[in-house]
Amino acid sequence: MGNGKFGGHFYPGLYIFFYGLYQATLLSKAMVVSDSPVCVSYLPKNKNRCSKLRISYGGLLKIVTGSLLTSYVVFCLDDGMVLINKEMPPRFMYPQEWQHLTMFILLTLDGCVDVMSKSALRQRLVLLERGATTLGIYVLLLLLVSHVQVSSKVELQVHSLLILVVFLLMLVLTAELWAPEMVHLWVIETFLFLTMGSWLMQAAFILFRPVSGFPWKDDDISDIMFVTTFFCWHVMINALCMLGIYGISSFWHRCYRPGLRMMGSKEALYHKSSEGSFYKLLQESEQQDRDDQAPLLSKSSP
């Protein structure tokens, strides 16, 4: 059971953290390329070719990750995911594992919505994608609030800080449904994903595999205080991580791709009057990353 609970915190945290790093890379690229991030956009290199084949790599990753984590939760229990025991009166079994299972199923469904919107439909429904992600965060917050009802002092402090991050992320995602062009919201969202992922990984070691080899003590106030201290360190480190990614992206585009900023400036007039937005710029930054890999695939095909 301890190993299962460790994996239920560490592996989702690892996925969320790398997702935040990916978002930070796209965000930094979009901010570096555009002179005015909210209004300027640029066209992908091979627009016609990419319009024929739209593959949602992010959605596929959500489906694969959610399915693997779902299988992990199911098979980590010796007697399987039993909902109700056979005793009289019957009672529900494994409440925390069932909550983990619900979270991972929501992640899989979110990936299915992404794949359907980007690959199956003729016109991409961005509002549907964002709405599915926001709904998943709403449900996650509800599950976490219920999750802490049986928590001890150290575990309660760990999960309370996680609930704070998820609550702020819920507010940001909700605001993005009405204001998707605000770059400030995208920066905050990326930062919250990074913090949520890194803190989940830290929580796995605090609760189930302490680095010192000795469990944290609920009756020691210094242990509880250091939980908050570690969380503050995560906040600072993730902020520095985002600044570092932005600095590396800025250096890369100035030294190796100086024409990219000029191209964004030339097309500012075209997109400023039509559908240019910072969200569209993020989408096309992701699309250009796929275009950079396309020549490698075309060389290998006749």
From TrEMBL:
Keywords: Membrane, Transmembrane, Transmembrane helix
Keyword Mitochondrion: no
Topology term for the membrane: Multi-pass membrane protein
Record-level GO cellular component terms: membrane
Broad class of the protein's primary localization: membrane
UniProt keyword Cytoplasm, yes or no: no
Pfam families: DUF716 (PF04819)
Compartments where located: Membrane
Protein name: RCG46090
Gene name of the record: Teddm1b
